[in-house]
Amino acid sequence: MRAYDLIRKKRDGGTLSPQELQHLVWGATSGGIADEQLSAFLMAVFFRGMDPVHELPAWLDAMLHSGQVLDLSGIPGRKVDKHSTGGVGDKISLPLAPLVAVCGVKVPMVSGRGLGHTGGTLDKLESIPGFSTQLSIARFAELVNRLGLCLIGQTAEIAPADRKLYALRDATATVESVPLIASSILSKKLAEGIDGLVLDVKVGRGAFMKTLADAQVLARTMVDLCKAVGRGCVALLTDMDVPLGRAVGNAVEVAESIEVLRGGGPDDVRELTLQLGAEMLLLGGAPGVEGDPKLARLRLETALANGSALKRFGELIDAQGGDARVIDDLSRLPKPKKVREVRAKGSGTLVELDAELVGLASVDLGAGRARKEDPVDHAAGLLLRMRVGDAVRAGDVLAELHAADEAKLDAGEARFLSAVKLGDGPVLPRPLILDRLS
Ligand code: URA
After folding, report:
1. Does 296 sit in the ligand 1 pocket, CB within 6 Å?
2. Ligand 1 atom at minimum distance from 169 CA
3. Is 5 noted as a catalytic residue in this protein?
């Protein structure tokens, strides 16, 4: 089989066979096909797409099996994970995983790091002193069995074809292709050995998908693809025009997550945790829930109210080497060297708080990365004191910024102020959940 012929076939709108697709994935994993040929193939897919029935499931299957696929079948119970397409202030995995685990569904979670304006679960978890996200697969499986959850980083063995192809896509302007995005995300998630997946597809200014229509196309493709390879899947399409919650950064997001697990926290973070959690309990056939969304929600609310989800988070932190005392004492989290309050220059209603610009402000403060290899400052970030719809008077504190030095505070403040728009009159309440696909 020659890569040249496969590129030409895709370029001309043909349908590749499973063997041909496997050959290309083999070429990406082994280095047996040159980068320029793989890149040309990716560009051909960008323009021609992939047949959802005859190509995409076979392509996903080859990507998924390009590396290690965890076998958790020896662990009793169904395993369900959640994937978010990435947002600003999106700390949902932190309260969600222990909450779902304590309600009886196992959560093996392999997460990523932040890049650009979006944060990553691993960076947030690593702001807990001592917390390790680099565990062996044996330890990962042991904790999923014993505690019902474990949160680790991607290993070099999981979906190596995606690592290669993603780097080429990044360099060749072929990231924004629905079949390539769907297969990339699912190849990594399904390698965790899960039975089901709940997708949180973000929509809006701070999201990968800026419009509901684009997000619906991606969600539909992922849900159908996941089902085509025999796993349960549900997608919630959720708002990311404005940041989620009040905290954006690392330690500040851990603190907000603990507040949610204590039964408090911002309404939107709590609500999305409950909605995604209910979907996970239903997909996972949680005991006592009988497939009823109302019972699922009640179970989750009870686990937040009685402290059992918070306790499970503490047990997880301890098992992953972290200082579990943070769940009772937030002052054990890293503290910023410098804090600055940002004050409003004028008066009016806060009509916009652009999530992408707020995310970039947190990168300016040191909480995120502009490039993959950059370090992050766990103590950096920001706390929103005002949210969209609030009445603001000149001089009111809009946000509290955390950083290591004044230069970072200056950059973060300028960017943050560019995200703020004051206007007249009331702002219509915005729905948090925009659609649900199954
Ligand atoms: N995230 C991924 O993991 N892959 C993509 O292709 C896009 C976003």
Report:
1. no
2. 6
3. no
Kindly state the greatest CA–CA separation across the chain.
Answer: 69
- What is the Rg, in whole angstroms, of the alpha carbon atoms belonging to the chain? 22
Alpha-carbon distance 282 to 80, whole Å?
Answer: 10
CB count within 10 Å of CB 31 equals: 10
Phi, psi of 220 (to 5 degrees): -60, -45
Which residue's CA is the closest to the ligand 1 atom numbered 1? 185
| Residue 112: φ, ψ to 5° | -115, 180
The structure tokens 């940041």 sit at 243
Catalytic, 188? Answer yes
Give the whole-angstrom CA distance, residue 59 versus residue 57.
5
- Our mutation pick for probing the ligand 1 site, out of 185, 199, 202, counting the most ligand atoms within 8 A of Cβ, is 185
Domains in the chain, start-ordered, CATH in brackets? 3-49 (1.20.970.10), 80-327 (3.40.1030.10), 334-423 (3.90.1170.30)
Question: From the CB of 185, is ligand 1 less than 6 Å away?
Answer: yes
CA of 419 to the centre of ligand 1 (A): 26
Catalytic residue among 188, 340, 369, 415: 188
Examine the residue annotation and report whether 184 is marked as an active-site residue of this protein.
yes
Q: Which of 83, 117, 378, 415 is catalytic?
A: 83
Residue-by-residue pLDDT tens, the chain, 438 positions: 999 999 999 999 999 999 999 999 999 999 999 999 999 999 999 999 999 999 999 999 999 999 999 999 999 999 999 999 999 999 999 999 999 999 999 999 998 887 788 888 999 999 999 999 999 999 999 999 999 999 999 888 899 999 999 999 989 999 989 999 999 999 999 999 999 999 999 999 999 899 999 999 999 999 999 999 999 999 999 999 999 999 999 999 999 999 999 999 999 999 999 999 999 999 999 998 989 999 999 999 999 999 999 999 999 999 999 999 999 999 999 999 999 999 999 999 999 999 999 999 999 999 998 777 888 999 999 999 999 999 999 999 999 999 999 999 999 999 999 999 999 978 988 899 999 999
- Counting from 1 in the atom list of ligand 1, the atom nearest the Cα of 188 is 3
Question: Does this model's pTM top 0.85?
Answer: yes
* DSSP letter for each residue of 215-261: HHHHHHHHHHHHHHTT-EEEEEEEE-SS-SSSEEESHHHHHHHHHHH
Catalytic entry in 123, 162, 200, 241: 162
